[in-house]
């Protein structure tokens, strides 16, 4: 699993291009329709994607300058910004997501090599090295692209993204008291992922993308085999 920010930025460029092709084809009516996220229209998802890019630009600026520059002024302001922008027409969403995504790409391209190791922190004050910021953005783009509920789902995710997401989520769940023990078999990837003590743990199998989507709270695909336990929230 690469930690090279430049390699991840190349993956992000491709993911962003796919997202923008989808967004560019949405009508005003489709933007106003519900997304796959409860309580959010597609306009909410698109506004969140744009503001997330802006927030991550702040983290890259912080990494280079050493001056604390939070992603958002507050959680409440983040929510308010998404609500305020959700109802815009499709053309405004296209321009916003395109501009914000390009702004992130331009800023990331200018980060000096030594700044990638600087420690910054996210909205929930989780401390991370700046070199993980491209991965944070890639997750946002791929997952929320699927959340739009149009022609791009978890089955569209690249294999490299699915593998990395499965490793991350199962590792995170292993360190949590509220996560059930389980062994996940990704039948299309030839890989197993274990949460907690795998000895005697229930096994769930299916395509890697379906396992990943289920783990992050995007529902259980009919292709999954096994008794599915209740999962804690992810993220």
Automatic annotation (TrEMBL):
Gene Ontology molecular function terms on file: maleylpyruvate isomerase activity; metal ion binding
Limits of the Mycothiol-dependent maleylpyruvate isomerase metal-binding domain: 12-148
Stored InterPro entries: DinB/YfiT-like (IPR034660), Maleyloyr_isom (IPR017517), MDMPI_C-term_domain (IPR010872), MDMPI_metal-binding (IPR024344), SCP2_sterol-bd_dom_sf (IPR036527)
Keyword Isomerase: yes
Residue span, MDMPI C-terminal domain: 156-223
Keyword Isomerase on entry: yes
EC number: 5.2.1.4
Keywords carried by this UniProt record: Isomerase
Protein name: Maleylpyruvate isomerase
Source organism (scientific name): Longispora fulva
């Amino acid at each position: 699993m690469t930690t090279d920010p430049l390699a991840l930025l190349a993956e992000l460029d491709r993911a962003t291009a796919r997202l923008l092709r989808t967004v560019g084809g949405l009508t005003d009516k489709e933007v106003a329709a519900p997304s796959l996220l409860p309580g959010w229209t597609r306009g909410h998802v698109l506004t969140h994607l744009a503001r997330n890019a802006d927030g991550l630009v702040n983290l890259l600026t912080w990494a280079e300058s050493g001056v604390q520059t939070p992603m958002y002024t507050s959680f409440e302001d983040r929510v308010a910004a998404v609500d305020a922008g959700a109802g815009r027409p499709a053309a405004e969403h296209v321009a916003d997501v395109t501009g914000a995504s390009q702004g992130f790409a331009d800023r990331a391209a200018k980060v000096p090599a030594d700044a990638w190791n600087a420690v910054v922190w996210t909205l929930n004050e989780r401390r991370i090295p700046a070199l993980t910021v491209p991965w944070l953005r890639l997750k946002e783009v791929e997952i929320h692209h699927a959340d739009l509920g149009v022609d791009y789902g978890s089955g569209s995710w690249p294999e490299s993204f699915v593998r990395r997401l499965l490793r991350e989520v199962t590792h995170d769940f292993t360190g949590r008291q509220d996560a059930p023990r389980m062994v996940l078999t990704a039948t299309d990837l030839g890989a197993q992922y274990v949460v907690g003590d795998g000895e005697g743990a229930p096994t769930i199998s299916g395509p890697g993308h379906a396992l990943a989507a289920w783990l992050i709270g995007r529902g259980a695909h009919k292709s999954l085999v096994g008794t599915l336990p209740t999962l804690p929230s992810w993220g």
